[in-house]
Amino acid sequence: MNPIIEVDAKALVEGAKNVLLKNRIGEFTKPAPDLYPHQWNWDAGFIALGYAHFDMDQAESELRHLFSGQWRNGLLPHIVFNTSADDHYFPGSPFWETWRSFDAPSDVKTSGISNPPVHGFVLQRMYQVASDKGRALNFVKEMFPRIKDMHAYFYNERDPYDEGLVYIRHPWESGNDNSPTWDTPLEKIDFSKIKIPPYTRKDLDTGHVDHRPTHHDYDRYIYLIDIFRKGDYREDSIFKLTPFAIQDPLFNTILIRSNQAMIALGGIIGEDVKQFKEWNVKAIAAMNQKLWNPGTGMYDAYDMINNQRILMEASSGLMPLFGGIPDSEQAERMVEVLTSSAFSGNPEQPNYLCPSFTTLSPKFDPKKYWRGPVWINMNWMLYHGLRQYGYHELAEQIKSESLELLSHYGFYEYFDPERYIVNEHNQGYGSRQFSWSASLCLDWLS
Ligand code: 2M8
After folding, report:
1. Closest among 92, 72, 90 to 82, alpha carbons compared
2. Mean pLDDT across the stretch 137-165?
3. Which residues, including other chains, have CB under 8 Å from residue 268's CB and lie 6 or more apart?
4. DSSP letters along 243-267, please?
5. Which of 177, 183, 217, 219 is an active site residue?
6. How far apart are CA 197 and CA 225, in angstroms?
7. Is 413 noted as a catalytic residue in this protein?
8. How far apart are CA 275 and CA 148, in angstroms?
9. Least confident residue range of 122-126, 192-196, 311-315, 411-415
């Protein structure tokens, strides 16, 4: 589809820098002005990547600040709290009760779950774009052991049967919070005998009720946190108690892609990378043996509690392209899925790529968070994945459609994939001035 909207690259770059600078509060940058007042884990990775193009001090500061919250067991929390804003977001730091864990830092307030481990490939990209390679190498040396500890945490603590695949234990860990992928395992939880701790949401003060997760979702999110607290954040205890442990193809892809980056970076700084290579050989084989679905041409998720495959209908099932996981035949199948009506719409009514969930499902909702809208970070990963397999035209389409959305509607958090008549509808939802939308735009335009 030819772009309908002219993209003014210079204006976009200026606008993107402004978003980052406005969301910056000292050592780190918030994902958005009001909705998310703390530092988020995978957001910080994408944000660092954008800063790397114009302010390397701040790019490094983002990762340093994030890793200041790393736990002794290697867990990198999904939130490092800005305690002065504890009242502005739920759940704030006290709710997590991370003091129950021997591993949590006492001087930095954090959550007790993690996020997709993007930091390895972010560090590699920062090194690639750096003009001062000597300085960049020092930063790689500084971050290398911390990222290695985080990967070791995942493979040692989240892979109980030594399969090479790690599990997530909360939908927030996936980053794709209310994706319909999690509906089935969450619906299996019998809530008739469960008491959920009392809580009050804050996200609806600024977020639109139609675009945010439901109360039904939030009850489940809070119930899971209560389990982690009861298990004192010990992974072995949690695994015995939790009704939610999922091997997610997106999360594992990102870990694999970061392993690859660490292998490359380790080679440059003379670090032993044997462990990363072993993790990756096993992980890639497991992705293809356990999660690949030849019937659908996507990678499924696996529910470890109910011992069930979850049929994947979200775009995260196509993300293994980014990790170089499929062979060329599998990749061709995946591209067929991406260009089919499920994601691309039809010639009369094409979608903006890439909806986060198949548009053919009754669960598809073009405005609701991770249940259909286009997300810029997912598009960025898909773009790089497609290029790796030689699908340059499709990759360019994803990039130009992303820039078109950002240019016309602004740096929103997510976008409606259905094309309306330009100017008559707003296609951007969630928070305006969203940092990773700005940051990845900068990376594309650099
Ligand atoms: C969203 O998640 C948070 C919980 O972590 C929320 O809804 O309050 C997700 O989109 C997640 O992927 C993102 O990292 C976070 C901050 O942008 O917001």
Report:
1. 92
2. 98
3. 127, 137, 140
4. S--EE-HHHHHHHHHHHHHHHHHHH
5. 177
6. 10
7. yes
8. 9
9. 192-196
Distance CA 269, CA 303 (A): 39
For 50, phi then psi, to 5°, come to -70, -45
CA 92 to chain centre: 20
Give the residue whose CA is nearest to atom 12 of ligand 1. Answer: 175
Owner of token pair 């997912």: 378
Q: Would the CB of 42 count as within 6 Å of ligand 1? A: yes
Tokens of 440: 């990845």
For ligand 1, say whether the CB of 78 is within 6 Å of any of its atoms.
yes
92 in contact with ligand 1, CB cutoff 6 A: no
Does the CB atom of residue 153 touch ligand 1 within 6 A? no
- Residue indicated by tokens 């990967």: 151
Q: Specify the DSSP element, H or E, that contains 329.
A: helix 328-339
- Mean of pLDDT values over 386-402: 98
Query: Tokens standing for 352?
Result: 């903006």
pLDDT for 372: 97
Spell out a b/e string for 362-385, using b for 16 or more CB atoms within 10 Å of the CB, else e.
ebbbbbbbbbbbbbbbbbbbbbbb
- In a 13 Å sphere around the CA of 53, the CA atoms on its Cβ side amount to 18
- Token couple for 138: 């020092």
204-235 confidence digits (pLDDT tens)? 998 889 889 999 999 999 999 999 999 999 99
Would residue 177 show up in a list of annotated catalytic residues for this protein? yes
Question: Given this model, what pLDDT does residue 426 score?
Answer: 74
User: Which residue, by CA, sits nearest to atom 3 of ligand 1?
Assistant: 172
Residue whose CA is at the smallest distance from ligand 1 atom 11:
175
Mean pLDDT of 410-439: 87
- Between CA 361 and CA 176 the distance in angstroms is 17
Question: Does 37 contact ligand 1 (Cβ within 6 A)?
Answer: no
- Among residues 181, 187, 179, the alpha carbon closest in space to that of 243 is found at 187
Work out whether strand 428-429 and strand 24-25 pair parallel, antiparallel, or are unpaired.
unpaired
Report how far apart, in Å, the C-alpha atoms of 253 and of each of 226, 299, 335, 381, 385 are: 28, 10, 17, 10, 11
pLDDT band at 137 (very low <50, low <70, confident <90, very high): very high
Residue among 47, 88, 172, 176 to mutate when testing ligand 1 (max atoms within 8 A of CB): 172
CA distance 431 to 100: 33
Q: How many CB atoms lie within 10 A of CB 68?
A: 15
For residue 39, which phi and psi values (nearest 5 degrees)? -95, 125
Beta bridge partners of 308: 303
Give residue 230 CA to ligand 1 midpoint distance, Å: 24
What was the pLDDT predicted at 423?
A: 54
